[in-house]
Predict the structure.
Amino acid sequence: MSILKAVINAFRKTPDTVKYPYGPLVIPKGFRGAIVIDTEKCSGCGLCVRDCPAAGLELIKESRQDYQLIHYPARCAYCGQCEDSCARGAISHSNDLVEPTYDSDEWVVVLKHQSGD
Ligand code: SF4
Ligand code: SF4
């Protein structure tokens, strides 16, 4: 292809990049966003905690009926392993973007607080 033809083609083409922030943000299929939980499905088994490669989850367990499943978003690698590990389909990624923080050590999300009371 001649240089002139390549230049003309380049002018005719639509942009290869997205127009964000001037156009709508399109979340791609399979995007791994913020971690969410279905508290009805979670049994507090701890498999997600065991398999998390980034210490992004913690299970504080007093008994079968008293436990908290905690997520640390600033440690999380958004790898999807917890979703794969959960046999009950309780924990998953949403399409929501994760907000930035200046206080990563204090950023703690209680995904489930089960109390036997
Ligand atoms: S989210 Fe799933 S793997 Fe994690 S503690 Fe609950 S049931 Fe177990
Ligand atoms: S997405 Fe990955 S890093 Fe984040 S909590 Fe789940 S297993 Fe851990």
Q: What stands out?
A: The pocket of iron/sulfur cluster (ligand 2) is lined by residues 35, 52-54, 56-57, 76-82 (CB under 6 Å). Residues 30-114 form a domain with the Alpha-Beta Plaits fold (CATH 3.30.70.3270).
